[in-house]
């Protein structure tokens, strides 16, 4: 049985969607949102690294005050 031209893209889209690991799309969207928020707050690359846990903390307690 041959697929019509309209069925082929649907099948390819389904195959592509199945190949994406669960949660991957959500992670990509989350990263985009993070970048927008960092921009809104005007964070520097060093500050973004701190927020994401990649930067060096100041002092033993992270340098924050309560």
Describe how the helices and strands are arranged.
Elements: H1 7-19, H2 24-41, H3 45-51
What are its keywords?
58% helix; 3 helices; single chain; 66 residues; mainly alpha; elongated
Walk me through the structure.
The chain is mainly alpha-helical and 66 residues long. It contains 3 helices and no strands. It has helices at residues 7-19, 24-41, 45-51. The longest helix is centred in the middle third of the chain and has 18 residues, at 24-41. 0% of the residues are buried. The model has no long low-confidence stretch (mean pLDDT 79).
Compose a concise summary of this entry.
This protein is mainly alpha-helical and 66 residues long.
Biggest pleated sheet? none
What is the succession of H and E elements? HHH
From the alpha-carbon coordinates, what is the Rg to the nearest angstrom? 21 Å
Give the end-to-end Cα distance, rounded to a whole number of Å.
69 Å
Task: Say how many strands there are.
Answer: 0
Helix proportion of residues, in percent? 55-70%
Tally the helices: what do you get? Answer: 3
Structural class by SSE content = mainly alpha
Instruction: State the shape.
Output: elongated
The proportion of strand residues reads under 5%
Task: Point out poorly predicted stretches.
Answer: none
Mean pLDDT: 79
């Amino acid at each position: 049985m041959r697929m019509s031209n309209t069925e082929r893209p649907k099948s390819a889209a389904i195959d592509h969607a199945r190949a994406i690991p669960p949660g991957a799309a959500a992670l990509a969207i989350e990263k985009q949102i993070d970048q927008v928020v960092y921009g809104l707050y005007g964070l520097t690359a060093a500050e973004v690294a701190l927020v994401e846990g990649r930067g060096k903390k100041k002092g033993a307690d992270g340098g924050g005050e309560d």
